[in-house]
Specification:
370 residues; alpha+beta; Tetrahydropterin Synthase, Chain A
Length: 370
């Protein structure tokens, strides 16, 4: 009889004793009935234990059989940043995970000196079979695929242990990820450019082969664009004919040339000109204009005051950073290097004045002589 059976027997006996005691008190049993009840409650469990022992018979307890099997010894090792090949050359995944394993009972005398190495090798072989078939553009997706494939214990090729992996992380090197991002941007830009190019080609083909095929097609297209405004379309017939001819690299038909628009400043054809157009005169230079000014003021060629005035004007122009114009004036009129006053006139200072009274300018002397 097991311990559970013994406990149940004692519990039931105690419960029956309480019920019989309550019944005896209610029925007012005689005094001799109470000792008999006590003997009954004690004897029933003893008889039950005896009968159970007779049925089981003698049993020898074997100490070896009582021993429980030793628990399976599990091991683990964390690996970091192991390079695994991808489907693209030179783009490797970096694999990190926790490798777990437990040894198997192997017949023969072949001890495993480094079970961790066998377990890691088995896990990496399983992972490499997956990564070498995947492109490096989506490492997170491949990471979840590896988490499912490596989550089951499987024996290694030698049969010494079973291994699995958990806490898997799969990434790319930082510079490889940057290159892939740039390649993705270029591919997307190229796709947009291809769509734009095809759109432009389609539009040009539509205009050249349909809209501007001839003047009639252009007129119909223009009429549909202007909501059936016939007057506007008729007014633009010459422009449409010119546009159609330019698109097809042909001359405007003779019947439509009178409808072509003419600019407001258009001159008549050469055969209608009565006189040849006068040649364009060159634009006068500053020295020419200044010479005309001197002649108009009476300072003709040979007048001694003419070079002096030119020298003064050249000095003024040179102060305005017009050196080229000043040199042109000096070359044109060839003034003397220095001015020598007439005999009998008082000497002038550097500013053309005496020490006491200002000297009369050539303009004033000419006025006095008149």
């Amino acid at each position: 009889m097991t311990t559970g059976s013994k406990t149940t027997t004692i519990f039931l006996t105690t419960l029956c004793g309480l019920l019989l005691t309550i019944l005896g008190l209610m029925q007012e049993w005689p005094r001799f009935a109470w000792p008999a009840l006590a003997v009954f409650l004690v004897g029933v469990p003893a008889v039950a234990f005896k009968i159970a022992a007779v049925r089981r018979g003698p049993l020898k307890v074997d100490v070896e059989e009582q021993r429980t099997d030793p628990p399976i010894e599990r091991r683990e090792l964390h690996v970091r940043h192991v390079a695994l090949p991808s489907n693209w050359a030179d783009y490797d995944f970096l694999f990190s995970a926790t490798v777990r394993w437990y040894p198997l009972e192997v017949s023969g005398n072949d001890p495993v000196l480094n079970p961790a190495g066998l377990a890691v090798e088995a896990v990496l072989d399983r992972a490499r079979l997956i990564t070498e078939q995947r492109e490096p553009g989506r490492p997170s997706l491949v990471q979840h695929e590896l988490s499912g494939a490596l989550s089951r214990m499987r024996p290694d090729p030698t049969g010494h242990l079973q291994a699995m992996a958990e806490d898997i992380t799969l990434v790319l090197r930082e510079h490889d990820q940057e290159r892939l991002n740039r390649l993705a941007e270029v591919r997307k830009d190229k796709a947009v450019w291809e769509h734009q190019r095809k759109y432009e080609q389609s539009k040009r083909q539509y205009l050249s082969e349909d809209v501007l095929k001839d003047t009639g097609s252009a007129v119909v297209w223009w009429l549909s664009k202007n909501d059936d405004h016939v007057e506007k379309t008729v007014a633009d017939l010459g422009l449409l004919a010119q546009l159609t001819s330019a698109a097809n690299d042909t001359d405007v038909p003779e019947r439509l040339r009178d409808l072509m628009p003419r600019p407001h400043d258009e001159r008549p054809a050469p055969d209608t000109l009565q006189e040849p157009a006068p040649p364009l005169e060159p634009e006068p230079m500053p020295a020419d204009l200044f010479e005309a000014f001197l002649d108009s003021m009476g300072f003709t060629d040979g007048d001694v005051r003419r070079p002096i005035l030119v020298k003064q004007i050249a000095d003024v122009i040179r102060t305005q950073d017009q050196h080229e114009t000043a040199e042109d004036l000096l070359r044109r009129f060839d003034p003397p290097a220095s001015f020598t006053p007439d005999v009998g006139e008082p000497p002038t200072s550097t500013h053309g004045t005496t020490d006491e009274t200002p000297a009369a300018s050539p303009f004033e002397r000419k006025t006095d002589g008149q």
